[in-house]
Specification:
The protein has 261 residues and is an alpha+beta fold. The protein folds into two domains: 28-173 and 228-233, 3-Layer(aba) Sandwich (Cytidine Deaminase, domain 2); 177-224, no CATH class. The protein has five helices and 17 strands. Strands 11-10-9-8-4-5-3-12-17 form a nine-stranded mixed β-sheet. It has a two-stranded antiparallel ribbon with strand order 1-2. Helix 3 links the parallel strand 8 and strand 9 (138-144).
């Protein structure tokens, strides 16, 4: 049992919790994914607006996986101080009403995102209070700045309250057949495989089949049609991806400063 002090006041005791995963857990840990288009739209909104901006998004849930499929803006009021933005409640109510009238599912609006412009990324006391007032089973909150830094949290409200800071995983769309064939032709023209046989080297064109791609065991169907692969959008530039299936996307480095959170 530990106690921490904040602003000179002693909070209630905090129990150190251990998260169990792998073979120790009957269920996988929660993961938050976002589509390529959705993360690109958020990044574009953040880059275009000089001040703080916010928006919402739709989330699909599959077990412990949460997928942000689309994001959008609602009429809002920001200020030149760059530290506050307020959504127009009438515009939000109108959006939800029209969504339902058009047979949309308002219950999937489970993402609230906002920017901090050129400031560091964190969830303010006002943000935490807003999160605590959500009436959903769960809510995802995301804050990003112009440096590409971000923080993402998943708050569960049923059957009990639980707040988790989570990484954001970006879905990579499957490659079109035409794109794969174009790459295949370029590879055939430019890549040769040297094979030693009885002390001599023989050169051949790489074999393209369902189980081999340029000497690397791989299912070609996975390359061109399946997916999506996962790319982790990392906040810490020195963090590595252990499983080899993820690629690090580094945030822009701040001039004369650290670009970590």
């Amino acid at each position: 049992m530990k106690k921490k002090k904040k602003n000179g006041n002693e909070d209630a005791g905090i129990v150190n919790l251990k998260v169990l995963g792998g073979s120790q857990a009957p269920f996988p840990l929660p993961r938050v994914f976002i589509s390529q288009e959705a993360i690109q739209r958020i990044k574009c909104f953040v880059d275009l607006c000089e001040y703080e901006i916010n928006g919402f998004g739709f989330v699909e849930r599959n077990g412990n996986d949460f997928v942000i499929t689309d994001v959008f803006l609602i009429k809002q009021y920001t200020c030149t101080s760059g530290v506050h933005v307020e959504t127009d409640s009438r515009a939000l109510n109108k959006f939800v009403r029209e969504l339902v009238q058009n047979n949309g599912d308002a219950s999937k609006m489970r993402l609230q995102w906002h920017s901090h412009a050129w400031s560091s990324v964190f969830f303010s006391d006002e943000d935490v209070e807003t999160i605590g007032n959500y009436m959903n089973d769960f809510m995802i909150s995301l804050v990003m700045n112009k440096y590409g830094e971000y923080r993402c949290r998943l708050d569960l409200f049923k059957p009990f309250n639980l707040s988790l800071e989570v990484p954001l995983l970006v879905y990579i769309n499957p490659l079109p057949d035409a794109f794969v064939r174009c790459c295949e032709e370029e590879m055939k023209q430019n890549v040769r495989v040297k094979t030693p046989i009885l002390g001599k080297l023989f050169t051949r064109v790489p074999k393209i089949s369902d189980d081999t791609l340029c000497g690397i065991p791989v299912d070609l169907a996975d390359v061109k049609a399946s997916g999506p692969e996962e790319i982790e959008l990392l906040s810490q530039p020195n963090q590595s991806c252990a499983d080899g299936t993820a690629v690090e996307i580094k945030p822009a480095r701040r001039e004369g400063g650290d670009n970590g959170l």
